[in-house]
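Translate structure to sequence.
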């Protein structure tokens, strides 16, 4: 059995090419089969350090495409099929090892036009999510929660892209500003029951009644390693042991900065952050340069300030050794808070973006909390 033969299996769900050799242009490629106009195609997503590129190719072109874009360029290729997972491992001297794990994977969704193939499907027996108000008692999505349901699945989809070929057996996750914890319970279920990872998740929020209710639901359904705590990320002493992942979804204004700072200080391997209510820059930015036209109108100023804040945070995270992808979390129609920072700690050297951030702050007179917290850390400079 060859890589090309496995790749052309009719039941292929997706193929993930990782562990690129040094001269490779793309650090990771994910390929999925799709259907368009009655034809079976393949859609490839190629990731550099900062950008994603997409390409479609026909089945007849698959062998040539693999030869040009994959073979000899990646040391690990994992093919997820509906009846098994096939892994190809290539050594530096070119030797190949083929491993087969008889673990079933979710059925592929081929058509561009069919209903979205969510990881958590309507009708799935998930009683905890009835208590959370996402599902009715017969496990249908509550009509008023359909946008939230889409957000949950989109988040899990983004997480799954990172953990698809992970060999982790244990994981400790902190969720800052967890609120009603829809996006805490679902990741716990995903890691514990879908990925079979020994996971521990702690959710933090300021509202004691919300925390109490979430703990009751977790205990009711035997989620023994899921806990919720009343805490303020900006001032309270938090979890002191090693952590692997930080979630910060819709933590208001500078609470996002404190969550990111905590993740950096704890050397968290993964960060998933969707900022919210970004008032700080908007409240302090002043005219003073070539972008003054963007500050002339209130709505434009607000959106410019939010994007500037996202870009500053992403740049500072790069300075601290993280690879950062800025993604659309959900469609803008479902939520205006739709930019996600997906970050993974790498072995590459720190960046040097802090000076540019400092120059912008000097020119436009605004303040930014993550920059202030990191002064003297990573590759930031004291003014």
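Result:
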């Amino acid at each position: 059995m060859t890589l090309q033969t496995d790749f052309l299996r009719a039941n292929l769900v997706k193929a993930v090419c990782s562990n690129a050799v040094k001269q490779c242009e793309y650090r990771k490629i994910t390929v999925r089969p799709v259907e368009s106009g009655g034809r079976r195609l393949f859609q490839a997503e190629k990731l550099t350090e900062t950008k994603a590129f997409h390409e479609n190719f026909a089945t007849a072109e698959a062998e040539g495409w693999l030869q040009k874009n994959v073979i000899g360029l990646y040391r690990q290729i994992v093919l997820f099929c509906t009846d098994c997972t096939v892994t190809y491992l290539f050594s530096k001297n070119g030797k190949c090892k083929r491993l087969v794990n008889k673990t079933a994977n979710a059925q592929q969704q081929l058509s561009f036009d069919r209903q979205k193939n969510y990881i958590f499907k309507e009708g799935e027996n998930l009683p905890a999510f009835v208590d959370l108000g996402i599902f009715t008692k017969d496990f249908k999505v509550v009509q008023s929660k359909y946008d939230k349901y889409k957000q949950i699945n989109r988040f899990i989809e983004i997480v799954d892209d990172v953990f698809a070929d992970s060999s982790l057996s244990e994981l400790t996750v902190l969720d800052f500003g967890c609120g009603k914890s829809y996006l805490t319970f679902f990741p716990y279920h995903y890691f514990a029951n879908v990925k079979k990872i020994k996971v521990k998740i702690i959710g933090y929020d300021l509202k004691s009644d919300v925390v109490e209710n979430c703990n009751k639901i977790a205990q009711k359904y035997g989620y023994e390693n899921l806990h919720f705590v009343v805490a303020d990320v900006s001032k309270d002493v938090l979890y002191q042991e090693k952590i692997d992942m930080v979630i910060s979804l819709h933590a208001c204004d500078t609470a996002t900065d404190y969550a990111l700072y905590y993740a950096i200080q704890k050397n968290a391997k993964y960060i998933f952050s969707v900022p919210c209510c970004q008032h700080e820059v908007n409240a302090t930015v002043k005219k003073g340069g070539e972008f003054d036209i963007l500050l002339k109108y209130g709505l434009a100023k607000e959106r410019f300030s939010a994007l500037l804040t996202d870009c500053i945070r992403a740049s500072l995270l790069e300075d601290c050794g993280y690879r950062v992808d800025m993604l659309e979390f959900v469609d803008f129609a479902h939520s205006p808070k739709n930019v996600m920072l997906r970050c993974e700690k790498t072995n590459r050297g720190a960046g040097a973006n802090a000076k540019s951030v400092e120059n912008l702050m000097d020119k436009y007179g605004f303040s930014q909390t993550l920059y202030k917290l990191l002064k003297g850390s990573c590759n930031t400079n004291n003014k």
